[in-house]
Amino acid sequence: MKKDDLDRDERAILDAFERGELRPVRNPAAAIARHRKYAQNTLRKDRRVNIRISDKDLEGLRVMAVEDGIPYQTLMSSVLHRFVSGSLVPSPRR
User: Fold this and answer.
1) Which of 12, 32, 33, 76 registers the highest number of CB atoms within 10 A of its CB?
2) Any idea where the domains of the chain sit in the sequence?
3) Burial per residue of 13-40, b for 16 or more beta-carbon CB atoms within 10 angstroms, e otherwise
4) HSE on the CB side for 83, CA within 13 Å?
5) Bigger pLDDT: 77 or 3?
């Protein structure tokens, strides 16, 4: 893979690595377990909510979910999570 193929964040990580700024973790197994727990907590669905949205919006979500190959509820949850975490980046849709 060429450096030009990397996105901005990937280039920043590679540059930091090449400058020797990154250090290995002391206990990789513990770090992996800790981050696995973070992921599980992030993905855990432990609350139910009911919302009212327009038929047009719901149909649009269902179409997008079909295009992505996921249930529309999963798509809605993902969009809300990305919005709350500040990582929602709009992308053009057909």
Assistant:
1) 76
2) 7-44, 49-89
3) eeeeeeeeeeeeeeeeeeeeeeeeeeee
4) 7
5) 77
